[in-house]
Design a protein that fits this description.
The structure is a homodimer.
Chain A lengths: L7 H18 L6 H14 L4 H4 E3 L3 H10 L3 E4 L2 H6 L2 H6 L3 E4 L4 H10 L3 H12 L4 E4 L3 H12 L6 E4 L7 H15 L3 E4 L6 H19 L8
Parallel strand pairs in A: 2-3, 2-4, 4-5, 5-6
Antiparallel strand pairs in A: 1-6
Helix pairs in contact in A: 1-2, 2-11, 4-11, 7-8, 8-9, 9-10
């Protein structure tokens, strides 16, 4: 049988239906407040492990949606995550997204401090946008920098901690989550090795769609 | 124990060492010609399923490296995949990368033909760069368009077929692989549901690093 061309919106609806059914069969249906995020990450990766890996501080989604309604800036740790965030959706909420990895000032600061660009970029993010949504899909060092900054008083609207990898990644996510819990900072973290820029963007998009849907129930939903 | 800040190059070396060891323990060590691609995809996703999912037409990597040495253009189906491709690495080989998804001509052509932008973007790619490396990490419709074009005579240097998803994705990848095999077009395809823009970019980068290493053995390797 030749596969048919379908419309993207129909494909998305059918995909979420399949994800919902398979999660149910596996006994992994997420609680309603996490549903949009968990399902969109699975939609992005086709990896049901995320139903087990994703951890949320209490009311993290609610607080992130509130921040998006207030026009929060999203700062990502890679241009790839930035490219994956829905710009029309974010613009409707009056929000913006940015990434400092290619910033010449950041490169200079990293060189001077003998650190990584990821660390210098997150320090700049903390300075420029102290109440931002920080989305980290790549660099565990960025996550550790955020943890340090939170201990020194930074209060981001949300930290999305989903770097992927084999060295320092598991530990950096555990550390970040513990620090966020301790200081009451909302966090969504993919525990374990898995994650990525695509996962970071998917979580941002789930939150953006949820925020838009709340303002206009006829807007594109995630179900 | 507090996780330490490490240098990115050290982290990458250690990560590939861990991946090599775990693949060996699982009895999934890839053949030497596929090693760079398989390991970099696992490095990008922390998902060892790709050791089983990735399929290559005979000599696909060798032919892709040859095309990169000849300055082949890489065309991606998303700006996210484009953002993930190493630009300095590609520039050293004299190559470039592009994506037509945000092209106003493509949007107009899609509207006129009542099709998706992904389809119109791949048609434009086939016209503008008939000998390109086509990297599809998102849209199964883009993959089906490439299959049709190959049946009509298009001969891309390589097709990377790694869209992710639940509807039409598995079938579109099987169809593309069969068409590539039949017509002797090099292809690297992630069979099954998994894939993504990050996987498409990772495969491009593995090929770029391999091509660079062949010209200059002191260049950044993948091991």
């Amino acid at each position: 049988m030749t596969p048919q061309h379908h419309l993207p919106a129909d494909i998305e609806r059918t995909s979420f239906h399949i994800i919902t059914e398979e999660l149910e069969m596996m006994g992994l249906t997420p609680p309603p407040e996490h549903e949009a995020v968990v399902k969109r990450v699975i939609h992005t990766t086709a990896d049901f492990d995320y139903a087990r890996n994703l951890r949320f501080t209490p009311c993290a989604v609610e607080q992130a949606v509130k921040a998006l309604h207030a026009g929060a800036v999203i700062v990502t740790d890679t241009n790839m995550a930035l490219a994956g965030i829905t710009k029309p959706g974010l613009a409707k909420l009056g929000g913006t997204a940015c990434c400092y990895m290619a910033d010449p000032e950041v490169a200079a600061a990293a060189k001077e401090a003998g650190t990584t660009r990821a660390v210098a970029a997150m320090k700049k993010a903390a300075q420029e946008h102290p109440g931002a949504i920080l989305a980290v899909g790549n660099a565990p060092t960025a996550l550790l920098t955020i943890a340090e900054q939170i201990e020194s008083g930074l209060r981001p609207a949300l930290v999305i901690g989903v770097p992927v990898g084999f060295v320092n990644v598991v530990e950096s996510k555990e550390r970040l989550f513990a620090v966020c819990e301790k200081h009451g900072v909302p966090a969504i973290v993919a525990m374990g090795r898995k994650g990525g820029s695509n996962v970071a963007a998917a979580i941002c998009n789930a939150l953006i769609y949820s925020a838009a849907e709340m303002l206009d129930p006829s807007a594109r939903g995630w179900k």
